[in-house]
Structures are given as C-alpha cells and as structure tokens.
C-alpha cells in the first residue's frame, strides 16, 4: 500500500510540473516579428506587435550582457502590419547590419489616436519580460523615437524614469508636466530637431530643452539647420555618432551629459 501511495505521488508530481514550467519564447538571432499578450494590473488585456533584433553574436558568450535600445516609430508605421514597421529607419539599419551592437526592440503602435499613450503600459510590461528572458544589461537600456515616437519617448521616459540610461527624442516634442519632466533632468538626453520641419515645429523641441535646463538638466541639443522633418530623422540616425554616444551612457555612471548645441 505504501509503495502504491508513493507511485501515485510521483506520478502526480510529474503531471503538474509541465503545467507550471515557463516555456522559453522563440527569440532568434536577427530581426523578427513577435506578438506580446498580457494583462495589466487592472485586468485589461493588452496585445502589442513588435520587431526584436538580436545581434549575430548574441548568445555566443553565455556571460555577456547586451545593451537594449527601444525604438518608437512615427505615425506612418502605425497599424498591425509589421512590414510597415520594417520600413522605418532603425529596423532598416539593423536589417543591413547583423552585428549592430544592441538588442533592438521596435514595438508597433496599433493606432494613431492619442499616439503612443495607450501603449505605454504594454511596452513597460514587454520590457519587463524581455529583460527577464534575454541577456540584457539593466544599466544600459536606452530609449529613442522619431516624430510621433519622439513624443512617445518623452512620455515613456516620464512614466518609467528609472529604467532608461539615456533618452534620444528625434524631431518630436512633448506637452510636458513640469514635475515629471524634471525627474529626467539628471539623465543623459540628446534632442534632435530640424530647422525647416513643418510637421513638428522646431519650437516643440526647444521648449522641452529649455524646461530641462530650468530643472538643472544639461541635454545635448542638435539642430539640423537645412533639414526638414524627414531629413532631420535621417540625419540623426545616419550621420551622427549617436550609437557610439549611447554605448558610453550607463545608468550606474549617473550624471548628465554636458549641454551643447550642434550646428
């Protein structure tokens, strides 16, 4: 009888174990599309499509920790078709550069209404999951976005100010809450703007930069004098030392970059 009870207990344990195990998500080297589904603390379900890029050497050194760059696209890539998102500039860059030295997360906003605001909590949940499942260096998580994504980058950074080591809003602005904005004053921030931008006027970036300085911040501020909106974001991501600069920033180092205005 005792032996039968023991066999029954072992059998029950074996049946329960697979149900409680957490299967690994099928992340692959290169850039691929995935869907995140979760439930917010208030019970509301969320669903978010995204591209995830892993460098070609990811996983070869099991002890290596990688910087993670979050990219928020502009209004043209809104929707549910990830092929539209692949046409945005940073997904294009990583497609052409298998050894790009970051893990890159590019979520897709399902709707242009209210911009990135309805997706901010879902992005935070997705980041929690990725940081738990991938070899991410928690001190080197960065945030950038262009146009609508520039506004989104400010909003996400203010919603989660302790997560990011540096923030790079590109040809975007923000209708900020001064108290929230001042929580970012110690962060390394590089703001890009275009003088001839008719989509997002230069003043949108200028007023956020001024407000940060009023809080004691020292944002780096680059204005492309002869560029319009599209030229502005292309120049920011392709002709500057942006990615090298990001790699120099670490949450553990603290402090803000020296303020400057580039011509």
Structural class: alpha/beta
Q: Profile the largest sheet.
A: 6 strands, mixed
How many individual helices?
Answer: 9
Radius of gyration: 21 Å
Separation of termini?
85 Å
User: Averaged pLDDT, please?
Assistant: 88
Number of strands: 9
Overview of the molecule:
With 263 residues, the protein is an alpha/beta fold. The chain has helices at 2-20, 82-86, 89-96, 120-133, 148-159, 178-182, 202-214, 229-238, 242-247, and strands at residues 30-39, 45-54, 66-72, 103-107, 136-146, 166-170, 190-194, 220-224, 260-262. A six-stranded mixed sheet has the order 1-2-4-3-5-6, with helices on both faces. A three-stranded parallel sheet has the order 7-8-9, sandwiched between helices. The N and C termini lie far apart (85 Å).
How are the secondary structure elements laid out?
Blueprint: H1 2-20, E1 30-39, E2 45-54, E3 66-72, H2 82-86, H3 89-96, E4 103-107, H4 120-133, E5 136-146, H5 148-159, E6 166-170, H6 178-182, E7 190-194, H7 202-214, E8 220-224, H8 229-238, H9 242-247, E9 260-262
Quick summary:
The protein has 263 residues and is of the alpha/beta class. It has nine helices and nine strands.
Keywords:
6-stranded mixed beta sheet, 9 helices, 263 residues, 3-stranded parallel beta sheet, disordered N terminus, single chain, 9 strands, alpha/beta, globular
